[in-house]
Amino acid sequence: MLEARNLSVEFAARGRRARAVDGVNLAVGAGEIVALVGESGCGKTTLARTLLGLERPAGGQVLYNNEPLSYKPRNLKSYRRQVQLVLQDPTGSLNPRQTVYEAVAEGPRIHKLPDEETVVADALARAGLRPPERFFLRYPHELSGGQRQRVVIAGALALNPQVLVADEPVASLDASVRGEILALLLKLRDDLGLSALVVTHDLGLAWNIADRVAVMYLGRIVESGPTEQVLQNPQHPYTKALLSVLPESPEKIVLTGEPPDPTRIPSGCRFHPRCQVVVAECRTVPLEILPAAVSQQAACHLLKLDG
Asked: Where is the ABC transporter domain (predicted)?
């Protein structure tokens, strides 16, 4: 449904170029939920914005249904009806002066969909706000955090999209509400056949919702594959370090060195300055960019040496 093919995105930063996304291959299949995980600053949100057409890539392509994304305004408008964004903070993404009805109706009005009231009511009902008419005239401050996030999801559903891009969809919610929103996303996938890319730093969320996981570090995918394989048998040292912070992990891996800086990408493996098991090849020999594949794969020199 949605694919990044050798995608690169650059920004000017302090007189240098920051490679926020640097040769990424990632695919989201029909009816599939893919989790994109990694620490802050690794390029997850930039990749998501580029897949939505909000950033122009410096190289590579975004493809939807195997067709390259066109950046002409008319084509982008049509594309964004098919691929919708669910933001992290429902309080910040909802206008406090707009009612729930106005917030959900904004997309259908832009796209001139007929029978607006029915579209809004159906979207709210699918998002779990029932009866929908009860919420029409309410304002965001009158809702709970979970209800506000459901309104944001309803705003995306009102356009009947094929793909949702959810950026940290439960990060701002209480633990008691997170499970409800994750269950809703799974239900939408099962009932509507929606595909989803879920951007998160929470590996527990990825375990509960995703069919596949892609682990990102300093602008590149360093490991990807089926969720159970990647999270139960990680191959890349970075993935192992991320998993080690979970409470049930038998050993903790403390990363050394500086946090990722996209303006100063190291030679060789870009993770080697912080890696616990670095070897000579890691410092000098570049790694191949991982393709978009279904099976588990990792970009690590140790795997080649072991093989």
From this structure: 4-243
Say if CB 11 and CB 72 are below 8 A apart: no
Q: Read off φ and ψ for residue 48, nearest 5 degrees.
A: -60, -45
Classify the phi-psi angles of 112: left when phi > 0, otherwise alpha if psi is within -120 to 50, otherwise beta. Answer: left
Are the C-beta atoms of 300 and 272 separated by less than 8 Å?
A: no
Sequence-distant (≥ 6) Cβ neighbours of residue 270 within 8 angstroms: 217, 218, 219, 220, 260
| 301: CB partners within 8 A, 6+ apart | 269, 279, 281, 282, 285, 287
- pLDDT tens-digit readout, 20-49: 999 999 999 999 999 999 988 899 999 999
Of 73, 51, 4, residue with least CA distance to 161? 51
Alpha-carbon separation of residue 250 from 237, 244, 246, 253 (angstroms) = 15, 8, 9, 10
| Beta-ladder partners of 195 | 163
C-alpha count within 13 angstroms, C-beta hemisphere, residue 33: 24
Q: What is the mean pLDDT of each run of 10 residues along the chain (307 residues)?
A: 96 87 96 94 94 96 96 94 89 92 96 96 97 97 94 96 93 86 93 95 90 96 97 95 84 79 91 91 93 94 73
Q: How far, in Å, CA of 222 to CA of 263, rounded?
A: 18
Burial class (CB in 10 A: 0-12, 13-18, 19+), 70: middle
Burial 220-241 (b: 16+ CB within 10 A, else e): bbbbbbebebbbeebbbbbbbb
Amino acid of residue 307: G
Q: What is the C-alpha separation between 167 and 146, in angstroms, rounded?
A: 16
In contact, 213 and 35? CB cutoff 8 Å? yes
Question: What are the boundaries of each domain within the chain?
Answer: 2-231
CATH topology of domain 2-231: Rossmann fold (3.40.50)
